[in-house]
Specification:
alpha+beta, 4-stranded mixed beta sheet, 49% helix, Thiol:disulfide interchange protein, TxlA/HCF164, membrane, transmembrane helix
């Protein structure tokens, strides 16, 4: 026995349309749940490396920072470090926000000229972030990925 609607559609065609609608809804829900957040920055290894290199070029030289009365934020990094690359947009934002009051220094651990600083500050992993107060005493050190709000909070506390 076949059911037919007023417009001539059969029961099986109605079931097929219903199944197609259910599949479409499932796909849409999946896309909505798994899509990246609108605030997520697009990141590729190349863009991270370029940001890292730009930041290194714009960073305060170590000798200048140590002679300055400002607190100093030292990033020990390596160009090959994907975590360093991934954190570079956040560090660039912090530099933009706090650069007038905190000296931002970047030291490439693969550059032999920084071997003494790598040793003095115990940089055993990258990225390593070392914050020095205005007297250039070590205040805090982080190794690895650190959320931007945590760094900003410590900067705010230091600047009081």
């Amino acid at each position: 026995m076949v059911f037919t609607t007023k417009d001539g559609a059969t029961g099986s065609s109605i079931k097929l349309v219903g199944a197609m609608i259910a599949i479409l809804v499932a796909i849409l829900v999946t896309l909505l749940i798994t899509r990246p957040a609108a605030t997520t920055t697009s990141f590729t290894p190349l863009s991270g490396l370029m940001t890292l290199k730009t930041m290194a070029a714009e960073a305060t030289p170590y000798e200048v920072a140590i002679a300055s009365p400002n607190p100093t934020f030292i990033e020990f990094y390596a160009n090959w470090c994907t975590t360093c690359q991934g954190m570079s947009p956040a560090i660039a934002d912090l530099h933009q926000q706090y650069g007038d009051t905190i000296s931002f220094v970047m030291l490439d651990i693969d550059d032999p000229q920084w071997a003494n600083q790598v040793s003095d500050y115990g940089a055993s992993g990258v990225p390593q972030f070392t914050l020095l107060n205005a007297q250039h005493d070590e205040v805090k050190t982080w190794v690895g990925k650190v959320p931007k709000p945590i760094l900003a909070n410590v900067f705010d506390q230091l600047l009081g």
